[in-house]
Amino acid sequence: MRDRTKSTAKVRSVRGFETRSKQLPHADRGRPWQNDAMRLAALTIAVCSIAPLFAQVQRFDLVITGGRIVDGSGDPWFYGDVAIQGDSIAAIGRFDRSSASRSLDAKGMVVSPGFIDIHTHARRGIGLDPAAQNYTRQGVTTIFEGPDGSSPLPIGKFLSDIGKLSLGPNFATFAGQGSIREQVMGLVNRPATAEEIERMRQITRQAMLDGAFGVTTGLFYIPGNFTPTEEVIEIEKVAGAMAVYIIPTYATKRRTFSTASARRFGSAKREASRPR
Ligand SMILES: [Zn+2]
What we know:
Layout: H1 5-22, H2 32-54, E1 60-69, E2 78-85, E3 88-93, E4 100-105, E5 110-111, E6 115-117, H3 133-136, E7 140-145, H4 155-163, E8 170-173, E9 175-176, H5 177-185, H6 194-210, E10 215-216, H7 229-242, E11 250-251, H8 259-273
Parallel strand pairs: 1-4, 1-5, 6-7, 7-8, 9-10, 10-11
Antiparallel strand pairs: 1-2, 2-3
Helix pairs in contact: 1-2, 5-6, 6-7
């Protein structure tokens, strides 16, 4: 994809000029010094006319050169240069560094689309460090919140608050099944009633309308471990019908009971039995 089309054409025409000059009849060639002067003049004109072509117009803002490109398509990697214009990839191929106002030497490195981390707890610290270089410097350019069945609610306000930050990476979220359940019935260990499930479904629907990508569960965390499978299915039906992206709408954890969760279960029981 090296764009040498124009310069090659010009160089050809200059060569053509030389060829034609050699074909001039002997009588038109003049004296030797005149001949040399003419040749020098012709050469000067030729050099002046092609010089700007070699000093290429800077068509791109940035070229990343010499890296191993892994483009995310599943194809094997290949060596190449990536040309950037504004905030978009303008072309992939072979480019001179002079074709852009800035260049980055990526020799020995991998050049790829940004990675997506679908399981982060970034809300704990993103407000303190919105640039989140701990992610971007690893190549992670999109982070997801709301894992383990836990998310802030309502999602609309959460995303609105996050949107006011000068974020480095893209930011997205899931809605947490445990958080939805807790909002409706607290941290109690019993199946939900039909009316409670309907309220959970409404909250889920609103979360999806507000921009959630789906619903996560943490079925060994409280209150996920209090949740019958049928109840989870009712929530996921709502999310599944509304998800529009090819990203799992259902990120979950094994339904086991960890020591940490057991300790939390104790404190939750105390919390649940406290007079209100
Ligand atoms: Zn987690």
